[in-house]
Amino acid sequence: MRILWNDGRECRYPYAKLRQACPCATCRDERAQVQRNPFHIVADASKDTVEPAMLSTVGHYALNIEWNDGHRTGIYPWSLLRDLCD
Description:
The chain has 86 residues and is an alpha+beta fold. It has 3 helices and 5 strands, in the order ββααβββα. The strands form 2 sheets. It has a 3-stranded antiparallel sheet with strand order 3-4-5. A two-stranded antiparallel sheet has the order 1-2. A hairpin with a 5-residue loop joins strand 1 and strand 2. The longest helix has 12 residues, at 25-36. The relative contact order is 0.23.
């Protein structure tokens, strides 16, 4: 995904990176479990096939990404997307 910010900065985001950075409570809890127990196995969509199914804005502060793996509760604040920019 590509975002061209108002200040002229362009950011490109691999879909897998965005999906893994999902800020919803469920995904945060799963990441915390993995950090506590590195041997915990988490079912994950193939990194080659995960992609957005639908994008929509949430007010003026965020982007909601619905993924083709069925996950749809990730609301990505613009500040997070800017922080994720390489």
